[in-house]
Amino acid sequence: MRLHKVYHRFSLLSLSSSSRPHHHLSLFLSPPSPPPPILSALRTPTPTTAFRRSARRRCHLVVAASSTGKMTAGLVAIEAVPGEDTSSNGAVSITPNDAAVAEYEEDSALAGGYQLPPPEIRSIVDSPPIPAISFSPRRDKILYLKRRALPPLADLARPEEKLAGIRIDGKCNTRSRMSYYTGIGIHQLMDDGTIGPEKEVHGLPDGAKINFVSWSNDAQHLSFSIRVDEEDGSSSKLRVWIADVESGEARPLFQSSDIYLNAVFDNFVWVDDSTLLVCTIPLSRGDPPKKPFVPSGPKIQANEQKNVIQARTFQDLLKDKYDEDLFDYYATSQLVLASLDGTTKRFGPPSVYTSLDPSPDHRYILVRSIHRPYSFTVPCGRFPKKVDLWTADGQFVRELCDLPLAEDIPIAHSSVRKGMRSINWRADKPSTLYWAETQDGGDAKVEVSPRDIIYTQAAEPIDGEQPTILHKLDLRYGGISWCNNSLALVYESWYKTRRTRTWVISPGSEDVSPRILFDRSSEDVYSDPGSPMLRRTINGTYVIATIKKENDDTTYILLNGSGATPQGNVPFLDLFDINTGSKERIWESDKEKYYETVVALISDQNDGYLNLNEMKILTSKESKTENTQYFIQSWPDKKAWQVTNFPHPYPQLASLQKEMIRYQRMDGVQLTATLYLPPGYDPSKDGPLPCLIWSYPGEFKSKDAAGQVRGSPNEFAGIGPTSPLLWLARRFAILSGPTIPIIGEGNEEANDRYVEQLVSSAQAAVDEVIRRGVAHPDKIAIGGHSYGAFMTANLLAHAPHLFSCGIARSGAYNRTLTPFGFQNEDRTLWEATSTYVEMSPFIAANKIKKPILLIHGEEDSNSGTLTMQSERFFNALKGHGALCRLVILPYESHGYAARESIMHTLWETDRWLHKYCVQNVAGANDTLNKDDSKEDNSSDGKAVSATGGGGAEVDNQWHDLKTKQKSSL
Q1: How confident is the model at residue 372 (pLDDT cuts 50, 70, 90)?
Q2: CA–CA gap between residue 740 and residue 191 (Å, rounded)
Q3: What SS3 state is found at 905?
Q4: How far, in Å, are 32, 132, 186 from residue 602 at the CA level?
Q5: Model pTM?
Q6: pLDDT for 379
Q7: At residue 786, does pLDDT exceed 90?
Q8: Which residues are identified as catalytic?
Q9: Over 737-804, what HEC string results?
């Protein structure tokens, strides 16, 4: 996923378009002392003290008080030594002395154990997290869900089972590494928009870990799960609890202490205001199966039918019959209907249930499950899937479908599973189903019209009534926003061309022909008209909100858009006449100082039309230096009341400098980036700074779309636990997210010119920060995570003259190890051999002469970025005498979670930047001068290709292209 803006300290819940307001937020979840990170390094001789003095330059640091809490055992702090305060802005000046430099360069570099970064970084990471919030269905109350800081590594070290593409905590019988809330506060939302005093949910056991918080539809009760730590350091199994919203009193849902929640897949749903359907661990379940000491035979897989089965490099797959049995053991649930009065009733037989979806009128439950035969090739999402319809009181109605094992879904983008898919309830009807069926066998490479057909049918058809065709599509179905019998919006898209279309249909009128409302490129953010605002119905579903104006019979909808412009995003809310296409802008974000967005409708409790003069919306507001706060704004006067007043999460950087900059690549493509400078920095007085560039490539089909501005210069600088912005506290200039578009226009594949475009984009970014005088040309570092790490290694191989060093986290470097596609590349290794080879920095390891720091989680579960990728790349670098260092973080996955791991990652990064960027030790001793570097790069011959697009390298079979945001958030 592409994250243009990430808030690690605040998240807003509820107000979802889902008919089930479930909120599953994760962080991470303890045996003996964790092992230290695994360190490997190839070191150059240490320069003399005299050289270190001459190479150093004075830099100013804003020093924040370090945390006073007890430090985790085994951590070693490497502290900076303050010098004279000569700055005009009151910041403390820091000059690293020889002792500190020597400590970084010698003992600590090879020492075992976890390290701590400097206090100015540590204090930001350890700042208290801001609570998440959730609005009640009636919009009259707000929950503050209290969160803890970073979890200890002991939580991640708890045993877990890796089965069918998921990881299970067998002790809790839930997904492993699951985060939790530490408390729930209830606030009344007053008429003037302010919130009343907090009422704490009480009666919980000491040390309760809270998950899966959801409201009942009448907003009278909360449901959630609780687990506690046990004496051996593990967590208990989960129990379902209920809290009365008015009193705040909480109690267990089940009177029996033997009923536990099974949360491997779904957990529980409100069937009505007083009843929940719960996935429980079967009471008859015994001990887990034991792995045979001696196997009964070899592990065999075969393809004697010569089927074409291509799959990404999925991880944590089933390996043998024992794994299959173990998966069944943990994933099998017994559904139980539980009322608030304590009565219970079994619902259906035990099975591997994956989701429960009540109908809007609460009469039926759509029940999904998976079953054998399982696969050793693909994860559980492709196992045989059954969808059944049950009554809400537990009577079986009918089977909707039983789909076979789907090992053969093509790897081409926009390919899907055969048969019925996306089976859902119509949000505007009591109990009507709809779904899509592919007409091309699920293969995007097959040309056929129509490509998808949407069907609809009553839950219980009368007299054998057959499904009705609702609409036919020539692109791939992407969802429906329902309004009523006269209006629904249908979305379709096609990744290869980036085309996206929105249709207007009249579900209840066959004589009204569907028509195209919007037909555009998904890459063209300037033409994005916005998404329809949704309102909550009395049944708890979400439908398109329709608006009426005084003395006007026209029916309008609200379009909520990001408002991308060449000057940055200016979010808006338009009153849109769906019949004529005319629109009126009724709200727009401030452009000068603030960045505001419309989050949701607040005045949406009543069915029917909303009067514009009675409308209320929830908005967010932030600036470069002011963190996000939430407001309620009412019409017609548009008066705004501030709802939240969260403290600044890192006041020591409250006055940081931020600017969205534009510059041009050699081929004329417009590029953008966000330039951050430390508080109090003055380029005319302080001169150029060491600079860290952190980015992630992305593919485009057109140069015009690639050059469009995304994001806002007024957005708050959200700093996560491993964010490059942390080095603002170390007086670095940070160039965040410079666009690195890899463009393939027409029939050209973007990756076939990957290296050429990558280097050209990086050259333009470097030239720009040097031109502005904010970055020292010999002290520019490059870094990235996942596909950004892949980018980093390629730049050090093909453009070594640009950077002093690189930092690559959780990357993949050898594309021959991902032969059936990676990121957005859907050709196989055998179809595009030269592209795969030339894109791989592993193949170019002999060209990497600049220092590179590799960091990887030992338990990386992401498809494509196996830990082995970093290990083998390090060995290749070492085999050619490159200056490199490999850090393997025990128990960590693709992203890093534990405090020990994060602090050590920051220490490693700070040490690397201090030694090879600030001091540029390697650059001073490098025998390869800049001119030689350029000549070597230009003599490579053929340029190469890659892809990009978002946070982690992802398997696009699991992340379907969504063309519209059909949520009120």
Answers
A1: very high
A2: 48
A3: helix
A4: 49, 18, 18
A5: 0.86
A6: 97
A7: yes
A8: 786, 860, 894
A9: CCCCEEECCCCCCHHHHHHHHHHHHHHHHHHHHHHCCCEEEEEEEEEEECHHHHHHHHHHHHCCCCCC
